[in-house]
Amino acid sequence: MKSKITLLAILAITLVGTGVAFGDSSTGSVSLKAEVTSIAELTLGSAVIDFPATNPSTVSIPGSATTTVTANVRTGSTGTPASLVAVGTNLTSASDTILISNVTSSYTGDAGFFTTPGTPIAMATTPVTVGSGNTSGSWTGAFTWALANSWTYANGSYTATISYTLTAP
Amino acid sequence: MKARKTLLSIAITLALAPGAILGPASIKAAGPPGVQLFVTPNKITFRMDPPPSTATCEVTIQVIAPGRTPWRLTLLAQGPLQSQKGSQIPASRITWKGSPGHVFSDGILSDKHPQLLGRGQGSKVGMVRFLLKNDWGLAAGRFNQKFIFDLSSP
Q: Which of A154, A162, B65, B80 has CB atoms 3.0–4.6 Å from B88's, for a disulfide?
C-alpha cells in the first residue's frame, strides 16, 4: 500500500515535471488586416470672388472674399505625394482678355500641406501646385486673392474660372 | 521490498521518459479538467471607408470548461498594426465590445499588457466586435498584426 502511494505521488510529480498541459490554459490567435485606401476629399468655401473696379493707380486689387480650402487626404507615407493643383482660365469680357497670371492667391495658416504660407502664387492656364505632401490628414487653409491692376485693361466685366483638383495616389 | 523497488523503477522510468505520452485517464487523475478556447474566424479584415466611419469586425468566442470550472480570457496584440511601407496604427486605436456583457467585457487593445476580455464559469459562447477608429490621419496601406487570446483556469 505504501508503495502504491509512493508511485502515485511520483507519477503526479512526473506529470507536472514534463510540462504536459493539464488543460488549465488554452490560447488562440486572430490575424488582423486593415486595408486603408487612398482617398481625397476637397471642399471650397467661397465659390465667387469679386475684384471691384479701382483706379488703375492702385497696384493691387484685393478680392472680395477669402477662400477656405479643406483638403482631406489619405496618402502613403512614402511614394508619390498627394497634390492639390489649380488651373485657371483667362479673364474675359467679350473679346477683351486679362491674363489669369495677374491673379494671385496667398495661403495663410500652418505649413504642412499647402504651398509656402504667405507667398503669392500666380494662377495659370496650366496646373499650379497649391499643396503637396505625404502626410495624411485634414488640411484647411485660407486663401486671399489679388488682381494686379493696370492702365492697359479695357473696360468691361471680366470673368474667369479657377478649378482645383486634389489627388491622392 | 522487491515489489517496492519494482514500482519505484517503473515510476522513475515514467518520470524520465522524454515526451511521455499520457492517456486521458492519467491527465484526469493528475489535474483539473481542461478548458478549451475556440475563436472563429481566425482572420479578420477591417475595410476603412472614408472617415469618420468606424470599421468593425466580429469574432465568435467559445470557451469549453467542464462543470463550473472558472476561467479567465485575456487579449494581447503582438504590436502595432504595421504596413509594408513602415507606417503604423497603434493597437490602442482598436477597441472592442463583448457580449453577453456579464461574461465578455468591453476594452481597448494593448500591445504591452494583456487586457481582460472575459471571465466566467463553465462553457460559454459569446461575440466580440472589434472597432477600428477611422480618421484622415491614417496613412494609406495594408496593415497587419496578430491578436493572442489567452484562456486560463486556476
A: B80
| DSSP 3-state of B28 | helix
Q: Is residue B9 a part of any domain in this protein?
A: no
**Contact present, B80 and B111 (Cβ < 8 Å):** yes
Q: ipTM score of the complex?
A: 0.73
| pLDDT tens for each residue of A15-31 | 333 333 345 888 999 99
Query: Domain limits at B132?
Result: 33-152
Burial level of B22, CB count in 10 A (0-12/13-18/19+)?
A: middle
Task: Report the predicted TM-score, pTM, of the whole model to 2 decimal places.
Answer: 0.71
Which is more confident, B10 or B116? B116
Q: Is residue B13 part of a domain?
A: no
B149 near A CB under 8 A: yes
Pick from A14, A26, A35: which is nearest to B47 by CB?
A35
Residue B76 has a CB neighbour count (10 Å cut-off) of: 21
The Cα of B8 is separated from the nearest Cα of chain A by a number of Å equal to 6
* Domain edges within chain A: 39-167
Q: Do B26 and A15 touch (CB under 8 A)?
A: yes
CATH class of A39-167: mainly beta
What cell was used for A58? 492702385
A contacts of B20 (beta carbons < 8 Å): 14, 18, 20
